[in-house]
Amino acid sequence: MVDIEEILDAIRSNRVRVTEHAQEEAEDDGLPIDEVFLSVDQGDVIEDYPSAKPRPACLIYGRTPSGEPVHSVWALDRNSGWAVLVTIYRPDPARWVDWRRRRPKS
To answer: Is residue 101 situated within a structural domain?
Structure first.
């Protein structure tokens, strides 16, 4: 399980790698990366991906400084202490209940 405090420590220590995919998604959704970082500070881990490759990851729900919901997927290399921002997106209300739980598939 990835601990959000470990992700926050990496962010505060500038030990973050942003994937090209995450950068593209941020641009597509009009989300500045620094606002994504801030969303983690008040965020919660809502899904855990312990079997993700090449390292465990988690989905964090947070809010931008303007209060908009944002989801970000983070992986953590515990050996180096670096966090990887895998992807980010604005959650689709048709797919999420209260931004924290996926809606059941019909």
So the answer is: no
pLDDT in tens, 48-97: 999 999 899 999 999 999 999 999 999 999 899 999 999 999 999 999 99
56-66 pLDDT, tens per residue?
999 999 999 99
- What is the C-alpha to C-alpha distance for residues 60 and 72, in angstroms, rounded to an integer? 5
Number of domains in the chain: 1
* Ordered DSSP codes for the chain: ---HHHHHHHHHTT-EEE-HHHHHHHHHHT--HHHHHHHHHT-EEEEEETT-SSS-EEEEEEE-TTS-EEEEEEEEETTTTEEEEEEEEPPPTTTEETTTEEPPP-
Using alpha carbons, select from 65, 61, 68 the residue that is nearest to residue 29. 68
CATH number of the domain residue 38 falls in: 3.30.2310
